[in-house]
Amino acid sequence: MLAEKFEQAKFVLKQIEKHHHQAYFVGGCVRDILLRRPIGDIDIATSATPQEIITMFDKVIPVGIEHGTVIVRHQQQSYEVTTFRVDGTYSDQRHPDSVEFIRTIDQDLLRRDFTINALAMDKNGDIIDLFMGKKDLENKVIKTVGNGYNRFNEDPLRIMRALRFSSQLGFSIDLETLDQMKELKQQIETIAVERLATEFTKLFAGEFINHGMEYLKSTDIYKHLPVMVKYPYIIDNLPKKLNSLSSFGQVIALFHSIEPQISILTWVKEWKCSNKIKQEATQLYEAFLHYKNHQLDQWLVYCLNTENYQGFVKIINMFYGRGHVLIEELEQIEQLLPINSKKDLALNGNDLISLFPDVKKGPWIQTYLNLLEQQVVFGNIKNNKNELKDWIRWHPPEIN
Ligand code: ATP
Ligand code: MG
Questions:
Q1: 307 lies in a domain?
Q2: Which of 140, 206, 240, 378 is most enclosed, with most CB atoms within 10 A?
């Protein structure tokens, strides 16, 4: 029985077959359905070229025509449809130099990284399994398609991918494959950092992160990753039991909490992270520090964005033990907060200026507003103009 998601996606296969072409579900989605795991994206491999696919569907987005990939939209869902292909050499360790479109699936499966990712499934649920991928799924083993040495040499990112699949699935890495990973691990340093970051993030997000981390450590692969290449000791300082972390911002916050000497900016630069990740890491680290010094209080919750609650709780519990802080505690405090941001303050800079008309405008205004904000958040003053003014009269700003 195909899951509901596949039922819907079958339309795409049937439509391609109507035009006398072959089409299969491939890669991670087939693996995940056989493992009864939640399915991520549905990828489709086909004998039709991108140009041919464009004529078969109303809505096609050309995302990577030169690599044979388009996105087909059907009933609000997206399907990545890729023409059967063989890859040329990978001289820049980013993309194959060339791809050649072919008309049968066999060689397309041959270019895939691991046996468990080289399965294809037709519209009836029948599986094509040329490399004993199903057996490896049963035995929970990650093994390269073909000679691992050549496959890792061709694209060393696959070394990181093996680690991240072990972390996601809890699988072992085949001993020969593992030896070949160790032999070629230095090649990781040549890979585009953006590609590495995607795999590293997925590694940390894996349900079996401790298992994946064991491999990362025992193979010494981490010594070839950005930042860790210079400061390899930080890996040994990680908490003994890790929680899976759902974003790179959380990962940086964890590492920075362990070793504050390595700045968040260093992490962000070396891993070429976005500004959003930087902000997330910064906010989580500040919350961590506040917790260390003051425990959980209104100010901590006030400064932490709701979407960072989960990351905060995971990081704190890694340091202080499971269940030390619960997300419900943060939510309870949040509900009782009198204001949610400075904008909610019943008094603003202009009010302050009119209260102290003789005092020269300056940075004291901002400093004083910050003080008021804190007093309101802690419930020491009610957030209404009169009470704030009263309080100000008794606590005039100190201006030199
Ligand atoms: P996820 O569920 O995390 O998306 P996935 O197996 O679908 O896992 P993707 O990175 O989405 O992983 O890749 C889709 C498929 O493309 C893989 O299952 C594999 O068959 C193939 N693939 C991806 N990257 C590589 C690579 N670097 N070398 C060889 N094959 C690859
Ligand atoms: Mg995928």
A1: yes
A2: 206
